Amino acid sequence: MAAALAGSLPASAASGLGDEPYRPAFHYTPAKNWMNDPNGMVFHKGVYHLYYQHNPSGNTWGNMSWGHATSTDLTHWKEQPLAISTDDQEDVFSGSVVVDKDNSSGFGTAENPPLVAIYTSAYKDASAHRGLQAQSLAYSLDDGQTWTKYSGNPVLNRNSANFRDPKVVWYDNPAGGGYWVMTAVEAQEHKVVLYKSANLKDWSALSEFGPANATGGQWECPDLFPLAVDGDPSNVKWVMVVNINPGGVAGGSAGQYFVGNFDGTTFTSESTKPAAALPPGTVLAGFNDGNYSGWTVNNEPGNWKNGPFGDTPASGTLPGQSPVTGIGGSGLINSFDDGDWPLGSMQSPTFTVSDDYLNFLVGGGKHPRVSDKLDNTPPEGELKFNGFEVPPGTTLAEAGWTGTGDLTPNFQPASSGGDFYIGAKRINTFDTGTAPGDDRQGTLTSPEFPITKNFMSMLVGGGNRSADSGQILAAQLLINGSVVRSLAGDNSGILNWKGWDVSEFAGQNAQLRVVDQATGGWGHLTLDHVMLTDSAAVPRSDEESVNLVVNGQVVRTATGNDSETLDWASWNVKEFVGQQAQIKVVDNNRFGWGHILADEFIASSTAATTRLQSYDWLDYGRDYYAAVSFANMPEGKRVMLGWMNNWDYANAIPTNPWRSAMSLPREVKLIQTPAGPRLTQSAVKQVDKLAQKPRYSTTNGIRIAEGAVPLPAAASGQVQRVDITFAPGTAKKSGITVLGDGTSSTVIGYDATAGKLFVDRTNSGNSAFHPAFASVEDAPVTLDRKGNITLRIYLDRSSVEVFAQDGLRTITDQVFPNAGADKMALFAEGGTAQLKSLIVTPLEKAMFLPERK
Fold first, then answer.
1. What whole-number distance in Å separates Cα of residue 565 and Cα of residue 127?
2. Beta strand pairing status for 696-698 and 799-804?
3. Which residues are catalytic?
4. Which of 278, 421, 640, 764 is least enclosed, having the fewest CB within 10 Å?
5. How far apart are CA 85 and CA 101, in angstroms?
6. In this predicted model, what pLDDT tens digit does every residue of 355-368 receive, in sequence order?
C-alpha cells in the first residue's frame, strides 16, 4: 500500500540501529529521541563523559533532562542510562560537571571525592520558583553513572527568567589558594555573569562581561579557559566563549569568542571590536530629523495602530520589541509598530545612482524576497472543486470524493487551520471528525477531471516529509491511478502557491489525492484553491526586505538576519551609475520576525564590511552551537564539542528515530596572528585513528578547467576524510563537490573575488523540509604564501566539517544528500584553477558497532 501511495519514491535503506538514512558513522547520536546542547563534559578515571540535553520521551525539544554517553577515546561512544531527569518541579537545562577532588562540597569523602554537576533548573508551574531559572547541584559517587539532586537547590538564584548555562572551573590564584569560578549568562541582557565559591554551594558575585560584539540574539552557554599562545607557557591568554542564538554569522545559532585576560575577578577582552563609524560617502537617507523626508509610506489600514511603519521614524526600540541596537543615528525605519502583524511598504524619492556601492544598515526578520507577488490573489484560470466551498450542510462526500481512515470525505472540508487560505473552507488533515491532531492518517481522493491547461496550481501549507522518513505526506496527481506529480508544505501553517507543469497530460483525465501517513510534529497537510492555469503560479513573497528598484524592476535585495541588531549590507551598483532608482522597503510577513529594520543609506566608492564578519567565530557554518570544553582533560589539552544543529530548523531535520548529532571533538589552540592571538581548531587525533588506507590520492598538479571535473569512482564515499590543496588561479570560484549524484551535491570552494571559503548546500539533496535550511555559508580566508588553500574535510553521511588553513577557519554544515549520493568532482568557474594534492581516506564506523564478545 505504501509503495502504491508513494508512486516512485525510494524506499528507506535502513536495516537496523545505526544504519538508518542520514545516521552518522563517527559522530555521536543517541539511539533515539531529541538531543541538543552538550553538558557536563568531563574526563574522569580514563573515561570521557558526555552529558547532553535530551528528551527521553520524544524526537523534538521537550522534557529536558541530561542524557549520558561515555568513551575511552572520544570517538567510540556508548550511550548510558539517563543521568539527571526532569521532574514535576523543574526541567534540567545546560550546565557543567567538575571533579571535586578535595571534596569541597562535602558530597563525598576524601577517599571517594564526588563528581558535581552544576546545572540550570528551569522551574515549572508546580514549583515555588515557577518561571525562574536558577543554578542547582547534583552529585555522583559512582563515577558519573547515577546522580542525586542536592536538597538545598537552587544554590544561586538571581530571580531571573533567563539566568542559565553555568560552566564551572577551578581557578588557581597566583597569590595563593584557589576557588571555583562560574560563568553563566543573563541571556536577554547579553551578559556573562561571573561568581566564585569555595564549596560549590555558596556563591558570591565577581564581575560581569558584556554586551560585546554580536548581540543580535540571546547569549547562551559561556566558557572561560586559559591557553598558551603558540604553546608558550610564559604567554597565557584567556578565552571567553559566548554562544548566541539567533544572530550568528551565518544566521541563527553560532558561537563567538573573545581573547583577553582574567585576573580571578574580571575578564578583560582584547578582541572586542569598537563600534564602527559610518562608512564614507553621501548619505541618501538617515531618518535623523524626525520625519521620513519625502519617502512614501503605505501602512496597512484597519490595525490597532498605523503600522507597520507609523507616521515618523522610530527612535529605537518600539513597545513589545527586544532591544534594537546598531542604529546609525537618532532615527530608523522600524516596521514593528503594532507588532509583527501589519503589512506595508515604504519607497524613497527617486535619486540618481552616483557611486559604485550603496551601503545601508539592515536588521529584523530573515524573510528574503522571492517574487514580485505580495498578495494572495489567485492566477487566472479554471478553479476546481469550487475552492472546497461546498453548500451548507454538505461535505466532500456529496461532491464525489472518496477517502480512507481519518480522511473519509464526510470529515472534509475543514473550516479551521492554516493562514492565507481563500474563502471559508479548505482541506486540512489535522482537523477531522474524530479527535483532531497531527497523528490523523488516511487518504482523500477527488473525482476525475480533465487536464485542460498546462499548469496546475494550488495553495499548500502544513508539513513536509522526506522520502527516507518512511512517512508519506503529499498532495498527489494521479493519471490512470498512478502518481505522476507530488508536493507538500514547508512545515509552516502559511499556505502559499505551488504547482506542477502538467502539459504532457493534456486531454487526459486525472485525480487529486491527499495522502497523510505522517505522525508527530507537522504531520498534517492543508490545501486550498486548486486551479488549472495557463502559466505557473507565482509564490507570494512573505518578505522582509530592502530593495533597489531601477526601471520598475527590483535589481538588488537584502533581508534581516532574525536579529534586532542592525548590520551593514552593501550592494555593488556600478552597472546602474547614472540611472534613476528608488529604494523600497517591504514588510509582507505577519508572523515570527515579521518586521524589518533599515537605516543610513549611503552612496559610497567602497563597500561596507558587515560587523558580524569582523567578529571572531568558533565556526562560520550553520551547525556548530552551544560549544563548550571538556573539564579535567589530560595533558592540559583544551577540547571542545558543539551541537551540530541550528535552532532555525532543529526540530524539523529529517532524521528518525533520533534528532541531532554532536560535532567532532576539536582540540583548540591559540596562535599569534596579525590581529592578535586567535583560535585554531582540529579534530582530535583519535578521530584520525579511524582512518583506513587512502582510497584515492594524487600529488600531481592537475589543471582544473572551467566546469566540473568528475573524480574517479575510487574517490566516492559518504564516510571519509578529504585532504585537498588547490590554487584558485584565474578562477573566480573553484573547489570540490561532495556527496553528489549527478543532479545534486554539496559545493565546497573558494570565492576569489570575495576572498572567502564557502559551503553551498542549496542543491545538496533534501533541503525542502524547512524554508530556512537551504543556504550558502562563507568565511574570510587568506591564501598561503604559495597562493594555495588547504582544506581538511570530514564527510559523515549527513554533515560536512571543513577545516581551512590549518584550522584557522571552520565551516560546519548538516546536509541530507539523496540516497546513494557519494560522488566527488573538482570545479572551476570564470577561469581555471590547479589541484596541488588530493587524498581521500575512508574512515571506520565508530558508532553502533556490534558488541565485542
1. 35
2. unpaired
3. 37
4. 278
5. 25
6. 999 999 999 999 99
